[in-house]
Structure formats: C-alpha cells, structure tokens
Amino acid sequence: MLIANRRPSDEHDELIDLVNQHSGEEEVELMAKSMADVMMEKGKAQGETQAKRDGVIKLLTYQFPDVSDNIVEAINEIQERSQLDTLFDQILTATSFDDIDLNGIGS
C-alpha cells in the first residue's frame, strides 16, 4: 500500500517491478499484496460508483424521458456516492422534474 501512496499512477509499474525483483523478501511480499488489495478496492469502488450513476440515469430517463443529454453527462461526472444516492431518492419520489435538486448540473 505504501509503495503507491501519493505516487502518480505512471510510477506504479516501475515500483511493482522493483518489488518483484525483491519478491523473496517477506516484507516486500507483504507490500506487494497490500498494493494489490488497494488496487482491487479502488477498482471495486469505481465499479460501485458507476453502477450507482447508471441506476440514477436509468431511473431519471424512465421517469422523465425528455431529460437533456447535458444532465446525463453531468450525472456521469459525479464522483460522490452520497450525491448519487440523494439524486436517486429524489428521482424515485419526484412527481415533476422540479422535485429534483440537480444543483445546477447540466445547465
């Protein structure tokens, strides 16, 4: 975990190669496993966030078929899962497009 911490992603391959050169050492093996865990968790979190985005967009376009492409694109840029959850809940209970607080996205 520490070998990639605060390092640009373009340095990760070089660091992993260095770790592999010393893979017989127990401490280095532990670092490599930790890095793999971090990368797997990051990928999982990104996948979960994308799934939430997809759900928000699907529900929004189902409830309001004429939603603009700008709003869909703006939703695709949201990184905070809590914001996506809030939007989902608002869309689920909305009776009109005005019931949804889009905070100016896609304007």
Q: Structural class of the helix and strand makeup?
A: mainly alpha
Strand content: under 5%
Average residue pLDDT = 80
Number of strands: 0
The percent range for helix content is 55-70%
Give the biggest sheet. none
| SS field, number of helical segments | 4
Spatial extent as radius of gyration: 20 Å
- Domain count, please report it: 1
- Weakly predicted, low-confidence segments: none
Shape: elongated
Alpha-carbon distance between the two ends: 40 Å
Could you spell the SSE succession in H and E letters? HHHH
Structure description:
The protein has 107 residues and is mainly α. The protein has one domain. It has 4 helices and no strands. The protein has helices at 12-21, 26-63, 69-76, 81-93. Helix 2 (26-63) runs parallel beside helix 4 (81-93). The radius of gyration is 20 Å and the shape is elongated.
What's this model, at a glance?
By secondary structure, this protein is mostly helical. Helices cover 64% and strands 0% of the residues.
Spell out the key features of this protein.
107 residues; mainly alpha; elongated
SSE layout and pairing:
Elements: H1 12-21, H2 26-63, H3 69-76, H4 81-93
Helix pairs in contact: 2-4
